[in-house]
Amino acid sequence: MPLEFGTTVPFVTLNDGVQIPQVGLGVFQVAPEKTDETVLEALGAGYRHIDTAAGYQNEAGVGDALRTAQDSLGLTHEDVFVTTKLANGDRAKGRDGALAAFDDSMAKLQLERLDLWLIHWPGSDQANYVEVWKTFAELKDAGRIRSIGVSNFQKTHLRALFDETGVVPSVNQVELHPWMQQEDLRAFHAEHGIATEAWSPIGQGGDFLADEAIGKIAAAHGKEPAQVVLRWHLQLGNIVIPKSVTPARIRSNIDLFSFQLTDDDMAAIAGLERGERLGPDPDVFG
Fold first, then answer.
1. Catalytic residue IDs
2. Residue 265 lies in a domain
């Protein structure tokens, strides 16, 4: 189904050859009872990438929406890229916990094969997340997952995976926005062929959207501040998964392809870096 805005969301080709839409809908903090309608709204607006997690407790709503979309929108799973994540409690149980959690997520999502599965947080136990990463690789080799990756991993965590398993994640999903631009980590990803995916790409509606610099850029292009920030991500090469339950905002968050930021625009947003997290520190959380 074509996008309402007359263009196609570009794909990023991962290091295993799988293609992921560069813009998706994140359902973090979407209430379980609203997830079905929110995902259907996004699919109707042209989104073809949905990002959930076991910890969000709304995988079942995503699964219901995907099933409904077959009849209402003519979409099958082949048309929609689905990501979910392993919860911390299940990761802490090692291989057996991961395998049981995967089956549970697949039942809720009503899928036979998952597009992307992520370890949600590394935790402090290297042996644990390395063991679980080996389990992820087993499931990928068995054809149950197309791509495997991680979330909130720092360089030290990623190096442990490389050193112990030789398996490089396809994606690392991290907090990334104008106040926390992760330049050093993005460079490390590029060096190792890991795609950078941004959670809270517009900072959960953070104060930086009211920054004068972003406001000037938005006015110059006739766009909303959130669209400017999302466009900045795309031009950096990031995958973005903005979250909204408001139909108008869902649509504006994917209306990103009718304008291009200038070099001066990109530099102005780069100048907003503060190294300021809105979420937990991965070195101590999980």
1. 56
2. no
